[in-house]
């Protein structure tokens, strides 16, 4: 049986220690100057990876973060575990009743803010793939499906934080943005799970209709029968098991069980984690303190490891293409902004609050980065497009707050 040697284990411990401590230091510094925490975490990966440290001290970087061998496999497993848990937390943020309560206005906004950027991204990447450095390998359909999804998804955690900072989270316009972002995330991850499944050479991934059927059946089961079972299980866990350890261990166990199930079906594990997060998060009996414990545990330990890993193995300087970055940024902003503003306007809002909704929905943040990283590691996209998507996600997240604040200068808009 192959095991880590003592030296390899020391390297693994040092790597994780450096990633956690450095990411926390830079995240706290970024927070003080008004930047999202995840930006500090990504910067750590850039500093320690081939972009900077690896350029001047390649042997040191390779010894600490090897790309082959047992340590590399162990780090890869930890990073994959981190993204599964990250999607579990993202699922817990999706509250289906909030989406359903918003009615006609949310329906218009959700649909147009998803369909228009998806169609734009799919069409342009299908007809002009060379613009995005597509090398011709693999399926053009999968490539176009991914790019359409990348332009249509929003970042629910980032949007929620922006709304809280602006003081409009619980207003009508805040709930409209949240509901629309939830719908975007839900549909976007379902589509991307199908895309990842289609990358498989065997089993369900080779059959599109079967893959979609499995996705829909499992999602339907978990959000109906599964949710009812959890609504009975959660109160029992909070009553009978040790607090909060019992609830935390069983919740994460269910997350991994669901992730393993979808992975076994030929659909990526992230879908199972995401759906389990929705089902558990929608349980009314789940205490707010319990949600906070799960959220804090994952976002402060596992999420930093994932976001740091983004810069560890990609050279953001050598693969930076200004023309591609501008193209992706313009397409993403125009598609999402036009779709969200059009939907909000059709639903009954005037133009000024409709633009607040549009710029709020345009924040891509963590979810865009997770999506792009998975696509890159799965071989769907190359490093040039990956770098462009990461930069787009960061810029749209940074710009969303100030742009929304500008359109909120009218007090009447804020109260909608």
Rg over alpha carbons:
21 Å
Helix content: over 70%
SS strand fraction: under 5%
CATH fold topology: Na+/H+ antiporter like fold
Structure class: mainly alpha
Shape: globular
Largest sheet features:
none
* DSSP strand count: 0
Q: What is the total number of structural domains? A: 1
What's the CATH architecture? Up-down Bundle
For the record, what CATH class applies? Mainly Alpha
Low-pLDDT runs:
201-206
- How large is the count of helical segments? 19
Distance between the termini: 63 Å
What is the succession of H and E elements? HHHHHHHHHHHHHHHHHHH
Mean pLDDT: 81
3D structure, described in words:
The chain is globular. It contains 19 helices and no strands. The termini are far apart. Mean pLDDT is 81; it is low at 201-206. It has a single domain (6-414), classed as Up-down Bundle (Na+/H+ antiporter like fold). By secondary structure, it is an all-alpha fold. α5 (70-93) runs parallel beside α13, α8 (140-152) runs antiparallel to α10 (172-198) and α17 runs antiparallel to α18 (383-407).
Supply the key terms:
single chain, 416 residues, mainly alpha, 19 helices
Which secondary structure elements does this structure contain, and how are they paired or packed?
Blueprint lengths: L5 H27 L4 H12 L4 H4 L1 H7 L5 H24 L2 H6 L1 H25 L12 H13 L3 H11 L5 H27 L9 H33 L4 H21 L3 H13 L6 H25 L9 H26 L3 H11 L3 H13 L5 H25 L3 H4 L2
Helix pairs in contact: 1-2, 1-5, 1-14, 2-14, 5-13, 5-14, 7-8, 7-10, 7-15, 8-10, 9-10, 9-18, 10-11, 10-16, 11-12, 11-13, 12-13, 15-16, 15-18, 16-18, 17-18
